[in-house]
Design brief:
By secondary structure, the chain is an alpha+beta fold. The chain has a domain of about 100 residues: Immunoglobulin-like (Sandwich), CATH 2.60.40.10. About 45% of the residues lie in helices and about 30% in strands. β3 and β4 form a beta hairpin. The mean pLDDT is about 80. It holds the Pfam family DUF6776. InterPro entries: DUF6776.
């Protein structure tokens, strides 16, 4: 008997049971509405958040396009300004280089002009006078410095006119006169007269160390051949 009752409970023929909720229908509808509303709010928030992340917002997208356009315009303006600056810099550099070249050419022309004047004066001195023999055509002297350690730079040009003249073999001497410590003073070339050999012309120059407190007043150059004096020229300083 008990077995039959147990079998009826465990088989299809067992009596049906119904599970009913303890909440009434109105409460259940209210809870369902609240859940649906909350879910909708969450979904809307997620959608808006996704739009802001993905850049789908219309205003933000338009603003982004506007900013990109402005950036492109600014870059174009910057490139144009940079191009103008580069062109101006190149022009200034070219102009400066041209001015420097022009200044260098002017300096070179001035130096060439001075050299030509010197050469002209030199060759003018070589033109002999009628009936003139061996002569000193140019004697120059300049005192450099002052007091102790002063020097005198000198230069002599000696010519011998004619085409087929014999080679001259003689000596050149220089005599300096002036004052030293307020007293008369005379000085010749250190080491004595210099050997002088030439055929048509010869330029001789040198530097003489002056004694302390010496003041040069005049300089005299003398060309000698043996015991004879062939030419003399003097200048005052």
């Amino acid at each position: 008997m008990r077995f039959r009752l147990l079998r009826r409970r465990l088989t299809i023929s067992a009596p049906r049971m119904a599970v009913r909720s303890a909440l009434p229908w109105p409460v259940r509808w209210i809870v369902a509405a609240i859940v649906l509303g909350f879910s909708a709010a969450v979904a809307l928030w997620a959608f808006e958040f996704g739009k802001s992340i993905a850049g789908l917002d219309v205003n933000a997208k338009e603003e982004l396009v506007k900013l990109r356009t402005e950036v492109a315009e600014l870059r174009e303006a910057r490139d144009k300004a940079q191009s103008v600056a580069n062109t101006s810099g190149s022009l200034l550099t070219t102009e400066k280089a041209a001015q420097e070249r022009l200044a260098a050419q002017i300096r070179q022309l001035e130096a060439d002009n001075r050299a030509l004047r010197d050469d002209l004066g030199f060759f003018e001195k070589l033109i002999p006078s009628s009936g003139e023999g061996l002569a000193i055509r140019s004697l120059q002297a300049e005192v450099m410095g002052g007091g102790a350690g002063s020097q005198m730079k000198w230069q002599v040009l000696v010519i011998q006119p004619g085409r087929n003249v014999a080679e001259f073999n003689g000596r050149l001497d220089l005599v300096l006169t002036g004052l030293q410590d307020g007293k008369p003073w005379t000085m010749s070339l250190p080491g004595g007269p210099q050997a002088l050999q030439f055929r048509q012309y010869r330029r001789v120059e040198g530097v003489i160390d002056l004694p302390p407190q010496a003041v040069v007043k005049s300089v005299s150059a003398k060309v000698m051949e043996g015991a004879a004096t062939r030419a003399v020229q003097g200048i005052k300083l």
